[in-house]
Amino acid sequence: MLLEGLETLEVLAREGTMSRAASRLFITQSAVSKRIANLEHRLGKKLIEPDGRQVRLTADARALLLTVAPTLGELKGLLFDQLSTVDTTALQIAASETILTAYIGPFLQDYVRQDAHLSFASHHTPIIVERVRSGDAVVGIGAGQIKIPPGLSHRILMQEPLILVHHQPPDYRQRLACLSIDLSIPSNRHLEPLLLEAGLDPVMQMNSFFAVAHMGRLGLMPAVIPLGVADIMQIPASQRFTLPIAIERPINLLFRPSVYERPRVQRLIDCLQAHFARSQPSQLKEGI
Question: Which of 75, 176, 197, 267 has its CA 20 to 30 A from that of 30?
Answer without folding.
Answer: 75
